[in-house]
Fold:
Amino acid sequence: MRDVQVIIDENYLNYHFFTMFYDEKAFSMTEQLLKFIPDSFLGAGAAIKILMNTNVWGLFLPEL
Structure:
């Protein structure tokens, strides 16, 4: 008997997950957060836009 070895590449799985959930619309975490904040919270939108920045997150995640 011969042994059969199956190698599943990480890119293969990523491709299938991507095609399952991709709906041709980019997802923006900033936009989603801004939808939940009422207009009565003055300055909250500007604060979220400042915090959701790669320069800010780059301090905590240097690989970003």
About this structure: The mean pLDDT is 78.
